[in-house]
Design a protein that fits this description.
Keywords: Coiled coil. InterPro entries: AH/BAR_dom_sf (IPR027267). By secondary structure, this protein is mainly α. The protein has one domain: Arfaptin homology (AH) domain/BAR domain (Substrate Binding Domain Of Dnak, Chain:A, Domain 2), CATH 1.20.1270.60. The longest helix is centred in the N-terminal third of the chain and has 58 residues. About 20% of the residues are buried.
């Protein structure tokens, strides 16, 4: 029973020590890391990055939907152009042959209609080509492009360092407990100082990488918004 009480007391002591470290650096979370140490500016940085990540992902999915829709429209439209051109050819063929014995009114009308239909289908074909080159291709290139992937990799690296920092907070709290129990042992104090130094180093790297990731993500978000809007206007 005494051993169980002693273990419980040790656990409580470690929790209190951890809370002290968390209070020292602030509290926050990112991804699956619920207890990552942060200060207020880092929390804002993380929240900004999280919003940018969601924004760029949603825009990427929308761009992909537009590409699929345009490609489907081109396939269907091309079939309609093919049917329209066949109708044009048949009409002009009837008009040229002019087999009617009592006049040429229908033949002339068929010829005019066939030529007009041919022009309409030519315009439709040009429009479909433009949809492919001016809408689908640029959007597809951006969906598959390096800038978005590079920005995401930066965000993922930031997340990993944040988790490392979270683990280092636990290590610092453990070292602080040992210092209190060691009655000023210099070796124990040195290990605490080394752990605290590593924590500060991780924090510095994390903030630097976070700012870099936010900058890259914001640039991608702006490009996504501008390009997609331009392509939608082009389709209008």
């Amino acid at each position: 029973a005494m051993e169980a009480l002693w273990k419980q007391a040790s656990r409580l002591k470690e929790q209190v020590a951890r809370q002290g470290v968390f209070k020292q650096f602030g509290a926050g979370g990112y991804g699956n890391s619920d207890n990552a140490f942060t200060d207020e500016s880092e929390v804002k940085l993380h929240q900004r990055l999280e919003k940018l990540y969601l924004s760029t992902r949603a825009a990427k999915h929308f761009q992909r939907d537009v590409v699929r829709g345009v490609e489907g429209y081109i396939v269907t439209g091309s079939k309609q152009v093919e049917i329209g051109n066949k109708l044009s050819d048949d009409s002009q063929k009837y008009g040229i042959e002019n087999t009617c014995t009592s006049g040429n009114t229908l033949s002339r009308a068929a010829t005019y209609y066939g030529k007009a239909r041919s022009l309409i289908e030519k315009e439709r074909g040009n429009m479909l080509k433009a949809f492919g080159t001016q809408v689908a291709e640029p959007l597809r290139a951006m969906v598959m492009g390096a800038p978005l992937e590079d920005a995401r990799h930066l965000a993922q690296r930031y997340d990993r360092i944040r988790q490392e920092a979270d683990a280092q907070v636990v290590e610092v709290s453990r070292r602080q407990s040992r210092v209190r129990e060691s009655a000023g042992n210099s070796d124990v104090i040195s290990k605490l100082e080394a752990a605290e130094y590593k924590l500060e180093e991780l924090k510095s790297n994390m903030v630097g990488l976070g700012k870099e990731a936010v900058s890259a993500m914001a640039a991608v978000e702006g490009q996504q918004q501008r390009l997609t809007l331009q392509r939608l206007i082009a389709m209008g």
